[in-house]
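INFO  loader      accepted 1 record
INFO  loader      residues=299
INFO  predictor   begin
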Amino acid sequence: MNLRHAYYILTVLEEGSISNAAKKLYISQPSLSQMIHSIEQKYHIKIFNRHTSPISLTFAGTKYVEAAKKILTINRNLTTALNEINDETHGVIRVGISIHRSMYLLPQILPVFTDKYPNVDLQLIEDSSSRIEELACNEEIDLAFVNPEYQLEELEYLLLQKERMVLFSSIETELAKGLTPGSEIFISDAKDEKFIALHQGQGVRGIQDKMFSEAAISPKIVVETKSVEVARRLAIACKAVTIYPETMLNELENLKGCSTYFPIKGEQFKRNFYLCHNKNLYLSKFMKEFITITQAILK
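INFO  predictor   done
INFO  writer      dumping tokens
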């Protein structure tokens, strides 16, 4: 197995078809198909089930892909280590983060990092926390910002913050009219308010459902969204409330005239915010510096 073969096979699996992979790799589909065929002939196996959509792996293909990922990781770690021996400050760092986090966090981190390492190429992968964690496990990204419910054995976790939830509210709600902004509340205090909620499966939604269950309340949910940014804007527009991460409040200065918030009581409703990486990853000098800058900003 050579590096090019390993990369091409993984690209086919990632793209879901040979034709899509060929477009991404800027080669012809017949050339890519011939390369796959030559690998299969060499090992007397079939790598892909071509009749499925998206394309899937055979049992032998699964073994090939596992080895391919390890080979690419070893090569990447070796390249990084050799560059450091030569005292080079060139390289690539792949960072996974949710869109919501990137909106307020990256504008603080990247100016400092890029000023110190202008020749490091930063590749940003924006997705859900669970998906980013999965990519880190598969060694497809280097550093991942996550809010996990539990820690995975394959990853090393660095605690950045303990984060509590607040109730973000339009100033037009009955709750907001009767309380001092910033005062602590029980979630049951908002039982009669309209809620904007995130979709099932998202971290904040899980915390919200736990709150409702423990308080034995069933507030009216007006609409569900995938975005906390959309949720807060809808809360203002609909004279409603939404569960919101406290660490993102510094981005809401321009909304003081039409919104307010109330920290929610209950230690069980706090969550941990981590920066993690695969335990097999060789941390380069600039990766360590990225971590140090992040820790300093969120201290």
